[in-house]
Specification:
Elements lengths: L1 H34 E15 L5 E6 L6 E2 L4 E5 L2 H26 L3 H33 L5 H30 L3 H26 L2 E3 L4 E6 L6 E2 L6 E16 L11 E6 L7 E8 L4 E2 L13 E9 L11 E7 L3
Antiparallel strand pairs: 1-8, 1-13, 2-4, 2-7, 3-6, 4-5, 6-8, 8-12, 9-10, 9-13, 10-12, 11-12
Helix pairs in contact: 2-5, 3-4
Length: 332
């Protein structure tokens, strides 16, 4: 009888201890759930489709798929000969416009002015001779020593010399005054246009080189050497190294617990003991249906809000589309 009582007491003690452990476990889990929020999502890596801004034939490609490319490194080049020829023509046109403007602003050369003055003096001398001939002819006509026709011929020669003299004087005055302000303004406009065209050719020549915008991994080589491509045509796709985040989805009742800047841990299946650090960078302002790749069954048909978790220290362990677990600490 005493043995039965002892066994019964032992059983009750075991039941009591088990109940205590169970209650402690529940309390601990409730405390953990209260302090942390666990969500599920997938890794997203920003991709960049690269191409040339000008058309041409690809002459060189320097990287293979999977290569890591640093910012500023040259990925590919086009045959630049046509663009170098266009720049040479634009350079010559700009130099010609510059020289023309310098000529307009400087005015005419002293030698040209002196030559025009000499022409004026020559024609004035010729006019004076014909003036004297005309006076003599008028006296001779009175004595009928010459005919009326001869007098008219001398008079016409005098009038022609007078007109030529006036024309030479006007040309001299124009040379002394220089070019008009309107002509100089047109020259300046032509020079500006030539400079703009030269800059345009230099820009297009520069665009024959495809430079890596940020460090990343070359995912795909769409075209190869020898291909003729159009402006904007995709040549390669680059996966950026410094832009990695995780999209998770949270139901509306828990939305008030989150805020931008909140710290997070990103846990992968391959390295569960070495989580990545991150923070909330964006919370969607509108609700949406949970996407199919979220595995939690209770959220598959619920309206949720999308949250973007930005990884602070991404490396090759975080890959595009990888499923991860995100743990948010609700205590600051």
């Amino acid at each position: 009888m005493i043995k039965r009582i002892i066994v019964l007491l032992l059983i009750l003690a075991m039941i009591g201890g088990g109940y205590f452990v169970w209650q402690y476990h529940i309390h601990t889990r409730q405390s953990e759930n209260k302090d942390n929020l666990t969500l599920y999502g997938n890794v997203e890596i920003r991709r960049v489709n690269l191409g040339f801004r000008v058309a041409g034939r690809i002459s060189e490609i320097f990287f293979e798929e999977g290569d890591i490319i640093k910012k500023g490194e040259i990925i590919a080049r086009l045959d630049s000969e046509p663009y170098e020829d266009a720049r040479a023509v634009a350079t010559a046109q700009a130099e010609s416009a510059r020289e023309m403007l310098a000529k307009l602003e400087a005015g005419n050369r002293p030698q040209e002015i002196e030559q025009a003055r000499a022409t004026v003096n020559e024609r004035m001398a010729s006019l004076n001779v014909l003036e004297s001939d005309l006076k003599r002819a008028k006296k001779l006509i009175e004595g009928r020593a010459i005919t009326e026709q001869e007098l008219e011929t001398i008079k016409a020669q005098r009038d022609e010399a007078e007109a030529r003299s006036k024309l030479a004087e006007e040309n001299l005055n124009l040379l002394i005054e220089g070019f008009r302000k309107e002509d100089i303004a047109i020259g300046r406009t032509q020079l500006s246009e030539a400079k703009a065209n030269l800059k345009k050719t230099e820009t297009t020549l520069k665009d024959t080189t495809l430079v890596c915008p940020n460090e990343g991994t070359l995912l795909t080589r769409v075209e190869e050497v020898g291909s003729v491509v159009n402006p904007g045509q995709i040549i390669a796709t680059l996966s950026l190294k410094d832009a990695v985040w995780v999209y998770v989805y949270i139901p509306e009742p828990q939305l008030g617990k989150l805020a931008p800047g909140m710290k997070a841990e990103i846990i992968t299946d391959t390295r569960p003991d070495k989580p990545y650090s991150g923070q909330i960078g964006y919370i969607s302002p509108g609700a949406e249906f949970t996407p199919k790749n979220v595995e939690t069954t209770e959220l598959r048909t619920s309206l949720v809000y999308r949250v973007r978790i930005i990884a602070d220290n991404p490396d090759d362990g975080l890959r595009q589309g990888m499923p991860v677990t995100v743990r948010l600490s609700l205590n600051p």
